[in-house]
Specification:
Blueprint: E1 3-9, H1 14-21, H2 23-31, E2 46-52, E3 55-62, H3 69-75, E4 83-86, H4 88-93, E5 99-106, E6 109-112, E7 120-123, H5 127-137, E8 143-145, E9 147-148, E10 161-162, E11 164-178, E12 183-200, H6 203-212, E13 225-228
Antiparallel strand pairs: 1-3, 1-4, 2-3, 5-12, 5-13, 6-7, 8-12, 9-10, 11-12
Helix pairs in contact: 1-2
């Protein structure tokens, strides 16, 4: 059973501030919620932090229900434990052509290749570049971004605009241990949060994206796509 879990974090606690500021620490806390082998076939557990001050919400998608007791004790509220639901119920309701509101926090990057050299992964910098990255990725994951005609005929795609916004953009910096070298190195992860409306084009691919994630940086809070009913 795929599980979808939600937990509110307390920024007034020392543990809460640590998790909110360090994706490496958050990743460790999330993975500690499962016994060894608690992921799916490739060990995938997805998480995302939604920060809308003063509310900070941790979402986790996993192959089994997590035990987040330690996170509640260190970084949450005893009166507000985590909630988990059967995610398969939503996954089973997906059908071709449905439209959903969505949120995705991702690490949009490109592979800059030079002749005779190994490609270097570089982040997309501007909101336009990041949006173009998502539009290119979408079909591979079973959806397309709905377009708004803005007064033009609905069939006139060139005059329509995608219904998606880069609602947050930030660089997350943290230290990561290099076990082979026995040192720590600084990591900078450029993140973009997308909010918009999608249309289902391939049910199986979308289910796979919702449980396996989209793009890079999944261990550090990127890749989790969530859906909600379209309002209006």
């Amino acid at each position: 059973m795929t599980s979808f879990s939600r937990l509110y974090l307390n920024p007034q606690k020392r543990g809460g501030r640590k998790l909110l500021s360090n994706p490496q620490a958050m990743h460790a806390a999330v993975m500690a919620a499962f016994p060894p082998g608690g992921g799916n076939e490739d060990g995938r557990v997805l998480w995302r932090l939604d920060a809308q001050h003063p509310q900070y919400t941790l979402y986790v998608v996993s192959p089994r229900e997590p035990d987040l007791t330690h996170v509640v004790e260190q970084a949450g509220w005893a009166t507000s434990p985590w909630e988990s639901a059967d995610y398969d119920r939503l996954l089973g309701r997906l059908t071709l052509g449905q439209e959903w509101g969505f949120r995705l926090r991702a690490n949009p990057v490109k592979n800059a290749r030079r002749k005779g050299e190994r490609g270097k992964v570089l982040p997309h910098v501007t909101a336009d570049q990041q949006t173009a990255w998502l539009l290119e990725k979408a079909p591979r994951h079973g959806f397309e971004i709905r377009h708004s005609a803005l007064g033009a005929p609905a069939a006139d795609v060139e005059k329509s605009v995608p219904e998606v916004a880069v609602s947050q953009r930030d660089d997350v910096r943290f230290g990561r241990a290099d076990q082979h070298a026995g040192t720590r190195r600084a990591v900078t992860l450029r993140q973009a949060q997308f909010d918009g409306v999608l249309r289902v084009t391939n049910v199986e691919l979308l289910r796979s994206a919702m449980t396996g994630g989209i793009g890079r940086g999944k261990a550090y809070g990127c890749g989790l796509l969530t859906l909600q009913r379209v309002v209006g």
